[in-house]
Design brief:
Distance between the termini: 91 Å
Radius of gyration: 24 Å
Strand order of the largest sheet: 3-2-7-8
CATH class: Mainly Beta
Structural class: alpha+beta
Shape: elongated
CATH architecture: Sandwich
Length: 163
């Protein structure tokens, strides 16, 4: 009976190891990202590589994005920021191969490296979990609006204060 229990435990542990992989265990197939803008309260629209809108909301926002699009193919997202009085800004979010994916060489084996992590998209991760995009103000009445810190010191001396 003890021998049978030991064999069952060994089979269960082996099956557990073979059915998981490093990146899938550590962070799963989707990653939580914090997106913000300066100024905040900008509307954001996120589209995947197929052009499908996967998220719409307002900054600051916590979004969950998958790193993989298809088997061994990373996903790519276009994030468009929009706020009245500011220029629209579109940035691309592209994940990279996760370092934990290489842990399959030691722990997950070939099944984790060649099947599980690529199939779930867990082999990819986003570099920055938090991003803040600075939006540029539109020009007002033909005037360009700038922050004082953007103006060179020699030009600041000739500025006239408007009340």
């Amino acid at each position: 009976m003890k021998k049978h229990l030991t064999k069952c435990l060994a089979v269960a542990m082996t099956a557990s190891i073979l059915s998981t992989s490093c990146a899938s265990i550590i962070h799963g197939s989707a990653q939580e990202l914090k997106l913000d803008s300066s100024p905040s309260q900008a509307s954001i629209t996120i589209k995947n590589s197929a052009g499908t809108v996967v998220y719409q909301g307002t900054t600051p926002a916590n979004v969950s994005l998958k790193g993989g699009a298809k088997f061994f193919k990373r996903e790519e997202y276009q994030v468009t920021y929009h706020k009245e009085g500011y220029q629209d800004k579109t940035v691309t979010l592209t994940p990279r191969v996760d370092g934990w994916y290489w842990g399959n060489l030691l722990l997950g084996g070939a099944i984790g490296m060649l099947i599980i992590d690529p199939a779930t998209g867990a082999m990819y991760t986003f570099k920055d979990e938090q991003r803040v995009e600075v939006l540029e103000a539109n020009s007002v009445g033909g005037l360009e609006v700038k922050d004082i810190s953007e103006i060179p010191a020699e030009q600041r001396a000739s500025l006239v204060k408007i009340y």
